[in-house]
Amino acid sequence: MLDIARSIEENLVAWRRDFHMHPELGFHETRTSERVIEIAKSFGCRIRAGVGRTGVLAELGKGSPLIALRADMDALPLQEANQVNYVSQNTGVMHACGHDGHTAMLLGVVALLSKEILPGTVRLIFQPSEEVGDLEGVSGAPRMIADGAMQGVDMVIALHVDSSTPVGDIRVESGPASGGVDSWFATIEGKGGHAAKPHETVDPFYISAHIIMALYSIFSRRVSAFDPGVVSIGSLNGGFTQNVIPDRVEMTGTLRYTEARVREQIHSEIVRAFELARTLGGDYELRFETGTPPMQNHPEAVNLIRRVGGNILGNEHVLGMEKDLGAEDFGCFSEIAPGAMFLLGTRIEGDERVGHNPYFDIDERALPIGSAIMAECALQFLRGKV
Ligand SMILES: [Zn+2]
Ligand SMILES: [Zn+2]
Questions:
Q1: What does the pLDDT average to over 113-131?
Q2: How far is the C-alpha of 165 from the C-alpha of 312, rounded, in Å?
Q3: What is the pLDDT of residue 322?
Q4: Rounded to an integer, what distance in angstroms lies between the CA atom of residue 303 and that of residue 155?
Q5: Is-contact 330 339, C-beta < 8 A?
Q6: Does the global pTM surpass 0.85?
Q7: CB within 8 A of 242, min separation 6: which ones?
Q8: In angstroms, rounded to a whole number, what is the distance separating the alpha carbons of residues 382 and 143?
């Protein structure tokens, strides 16, 4: 499969560079979807467009079993600093997370599988907006799921490029592979006044200081040391000038977890921390915004990826994964059907380019590897070799 994938490497690179030059932000992937539809149609796919707004479903084969393969298509609000001939043509927008490569590799899968007789169905999920939610805080995966993207799916697989792993290696691991995330938004209410007479005020900074300590103690004093998670403050705003104590302070932050039970506990501990505002004579408002669930890699999907990866690359090139509480909305898919995401090594040797950075880039020799592993996983799953 890798040999066949290498024979279409030129196409993969051309598609990836085309997407890279024309990056689009979450839920605005109109040009990208059009290109995806055009290419997928040319290989004989059945298409459903406008799924989860700008998402696309493409299918090959028919009947069951059904395996879904997913690529995200959105870019980031970042000005590219690379000097390459495929540099982003859209000011302030850049494919700095590798989703251009994901989309190209999934089109590669279409090309590879269009030549095969499929004993079942392969559904290619081209997903919008992995990085951000819409005005209601909902990202691309749950939007596509609400539009039926996961109907009848028996297994779901995805990959993410990894700029710290060499080309020719992949990483995959059973169990929690990314953190669940929720956001929280708070206002701490006090009573403002002259900074020289703090005793006549209810100082929201003083209250905030206690709340901050309580928030940062959740993961050392309140949650078991065996339960991974994070509470972080992301913004803290209040006040106007040096000699006025303001009425209020605004605070926002994130929380991460891998288990629903721990999520419940973190929520109630955050409420307890903000209750300090009342103890100290002030008040507070607090609301949570539900984000993506943790991504759980299912052992069956992981075994399939390991076996296929081992056959294609050699077992010594199938590595474990470092634990990470970063969020990935693929968790919404793998909540519905057994699934797994693996990391594909795309490191540029001697010149590592990390994601979400204006200098991000990948070694494009990884593209045929990603397509070959995804295509082979689909074939083996449909042939019942799980
Ligand atoms: Zn990203
Ligand atoms: Zn990403």
A1: 97
A2: 17
A3: 86
A4: 12
A5: yes
A6: yes
A7: 195
A8: 27
For residue 137, which phi and psi values (nearest 5 degrees)?
80, 15
**How many Å lie between the centroid of ligand 1 and the Cα of residue 4?**
29
- Is the model's pLDDT at 385 over the cut of 80? no
- Block residue for tokens 């700029």: 163
HEC readout, the chain: CHHHHHHCHHHHHHHHHHHHHCCCCCCCCHHHHHHHHHHHHHCCCEEEEEECCCEEEEEEECCCCEEEEEEECCCECCCCCCCCCCCCCCCCCECCCCHHHHHHHHHHHHHHHCCCCCCCEEEEEEECCCCCCCCCCCCHHHHHHHCCCCCCCCEEEEEEEEEEEECCCEECCCEEEECEEEEEEEEEECECEECCCHHHCECHHHHHHHHHHHHHCHHHHHCCCCCCEEEEEEEEEECCCCCEECCEEEEEEEEEECCHHHHHHHHHHHHHHHHHHHHCCCEEEEEEEECCCCEEECHHHHHHHHHHHHHHHCHHHEECCCCCCCCCCCHHHHCCCCEEEEEEEEECCCCCCCCCCCCCCCCHHHHHHHHHHHHHHHHHHHCCCC
Q: For residue 232, report the distance from its CA to the centre of ligand 2, in Å.
A: 21
Point out which residues pair with 123 in neighbouring strands: 59, 68
Amino acid at 49: A
The answer to whether residues 100 and 11 touch, using CB atoms and an 8 Å cutoff, is no
CA angle 379/384/386 to nearest 5° reads 90
* 47 has a pLDDT exceeding 90: yes
Tokens 């106007």: give the residue: 240
CA–CA separation, 13 and 8 (whole Å): 9
| Residue in this structure with the two tokens 């509480």, named with its chain if needed | 325
Taking the CA of 72 as reference, the closest ligand is 2
Q: Residue 19 Cα, ligand 2 centroid: separation in angstroms? A: 15
pLDDT in the model for residue 35: 98
pLDDT, residue 375, reads: 98
- What separation in Å is there between the alpha carbon of 285 and the centre of ligand 2? 33
The residue with tokens 């006025």 is 244
Distance of CA 6 from the midpoint of ligand 2 (Å): 24
Mean pLDDT of 336-356: 95
